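sorry for the late reply, my laptop died twice this morning and i had to redo everyting from scratch. anyway the thing you sent over, i finally got around to it. pasting the sequence first so we're on the same page, its 188 residues, then the predicted structure underneath. double check i copied it right bc i was rushing
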Amino acid sequence: MWLLIVGILVVLLAVLAAMYNGLVRTNIRVAEAWSDITVQLKRRADLIPNLVNTVKGYAKHESGVFEAVTTARANSLTASSAGPAATAKAEGEFQQALKSLFAVAEAYPDLKASTNFQELQTELTDTEDKIQASRRFYNATVRDFNTKRQVFPTSIFARMLGFTANKEFFDVDESEAAAIQKPTDVQF
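ok and here's the structure:
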């Protein structure tokens, strides 16, 4: 009889330990994925001054575009510490500013032919791809964590184990998504 009770307690403790360890592992993956996003955002932000300076050399009178890109870059850098929602908002604004910058570049054939500009544009495209991949990985790990935290029987013990809140997805809100997908007319 005592052996049965001890056996049940051991199994229960093993199940609790497995649930806790699974939540901790997934929580660490979420933090790692967020770190990957911030690394790529920083990489892109570091490319932007070079890109702006290259374009400035050709289009000196387009200062409003340069100021918008610089402001959006600064907002993007500071937003990552405020979480996924603030970062997604800043990213939407940053994407719009970059579109304006590339629209300026389209108006200057010598700039488009510049090797430096082409290399920067290639680097930026590569970085954007890495940001998208990091964002997908982050959202997948958030989904895994939130699911794990909410499914039975883990949901019963998650709160007791200190996992009280769902993680936030890195989503662009609907109005920003529409603005990104809808082409805009750039006027100078």
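The helical segments are 2-58, 63-79, 84-106, 109-113, 115-150, 154-158, 174-181.
thats about all i looked at so far, will dig more tmrw
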